[in-house]
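Form P-L/3: holo structure prediction, ligand zinc ion.
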Amino acid sequence: MQRGTNLGRLGDFNQAVIFESIRRAVDGVSRVELAGSTGLSPQTISNVVRRLLDEGLVREDRTIVSGPGKPRTVLELEAGRMVAVGIHLDPGVITVVMLNLRGEIMHSRRLDIPAVEVPEKTIETMARTVDEIISMAGVPRSNVLGVGVVVPGPLDPVRGVMTNPPLLDGWKDVDMVEPLHRMLKLDVLIEKDTIAASIAEQWKSNEAERDNFVTMYIGAGIGAGMVLNGEIHRGISGNAGEVGHYSTGVVAHDCDICGRNDCLHAALAFSKFAQLARERGLDLTVPADGSVAERAVGIAELVRLAKSGNEAAVEILRDRMGLVGQVAGQLANTLDVGLIIFGGPLWAEVGELCLEDVSSIINERFISKNVHAVEVRSSSLGHEVGAIGGACVVMDANLSPKAAALLLR
Ligand SMILES: [Zn+2]
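OUTPUT (holo model):
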């Protein structure tokens, strides 16, 4: 819990701290409880709550009686008062979601983009979809906090563009923020997918877990998001967490991004899965150098084989995800966290088969295991985690009491 301050000109910060406490309280919270949890004076609480009530962000229509004295009025979040939109551009699919203030999904859409390699058309389709979702939700435009666009890294934080997007031909250095802002007349932020996934998990987490954990995003790219002492760690350019290019100690083939041949990204390339399958006598219908859509089909085939009991398929998947576990274990040693959450499109397919193995590998590798274990679990946010993260980034930028500013533009 972030504590407030009664000194100085931190009205906005205090408002954010109080609003965050009300937002987190599923069953509502009284002014007295707020004073206790935030450390702010009753007068400050009262002033800020008045403002929140005036702005319609909070309502008070219930009282609770506990012990002697007069009943307490319960403050509750007006969850639908503001919304945020997230767009996740992944090489395989584009997902758009709208979230309310509690982080609940109000609308969700998956877009099949036939020509994703034509950015102008794709950006127009994104804008049109956002417009449709806003009108479908019946939300006034002034109640939309903004749009968070989530893309594979690495990013150039000054220009807000992808500098080397894997599997997204034609998207290098493309400005998405300006055209979306122009078409939608809304604030637009851009965030790396792995970091967005962390922010989504933080929004959804409970108090005990919120402050220190790692997310591992396993999709077209592989990356980690790190929440340390309650703050997302972005690094100086918003590119922290590039664990996809850690050495696994196992030679795969030349990585198309870092140029080395033993990184995790190379180990999880579809061509590697296809090669291992061929060596084990499994016939995937998809060529090793297939298109993005074909690769997804190829992985799905392998997963289907594994789930139907094909041992070779199970071994291939566990072997590859074991390498992910090795890297995550090293990360756990570096950061001393107690929780690692796995998600992303590839993990959504293989997580069920590999979670237990990966968890064992991480905990074997974890040096401080005599002090505490590392809990390893799959994200509950499914394939929408990136888009949810995009919307949460917008919420975070507008509402959360964070020490560091995060706006890239
Ligand atoms: Zn690499």
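COMMENT: The chain has twelve helices and 14 strands.
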